[in-house]
Design goal:
The protein is an alpha+beta fold. 37% of the residues lie in helices and 24% in strands. The chain has two helices and two strands. The chain has a two-stranded antiparallel ribbon with strand order 1-2. β1 and β2 form a beta hairpin. The chain starts with 7 loop residues before the first strand and ends with a helix.
């Protein structure tokens, strides 16, 4: 994906860390321009193509979730019994 970008030069890709519920990779590349708009357009295209490739391969991204268990306070319990 990166090597197909005219303004990008692939540097490296590594498995960086093990997350609680994920494998975290780091992909490094150089944008061959100091122009911010060129950087943003190149980065956007790379990220979008990676996302689309994952989707095509059936690979899902891990999204953090949290479950909260809430108890009624004593005041609410007295009012409900009231």
């Amino acid at each position: 994906i990166i090597t197909k970008q005219e303004m990008a030069e692939f540097d490296r890709a590594h498995l960086k860390t093990f997350g609680d519920f994920s494998l975290n990779f780091e992909v490094a590349y150089f944008v061959l321009s100091s122009d911010f708009k060129t950087y943003m357009n190149t980065n956007h295209e790379i990220c979008l193509q990676i996302f689309e490739r994952f989707e095509a391969e059936g690979i899902e991204f891990a999204f953090p979730t949290q479950t909260l268990f809430v108890e009624k306070s004593k005041v609410e319990q007295v009012e409900d019994a009231g």
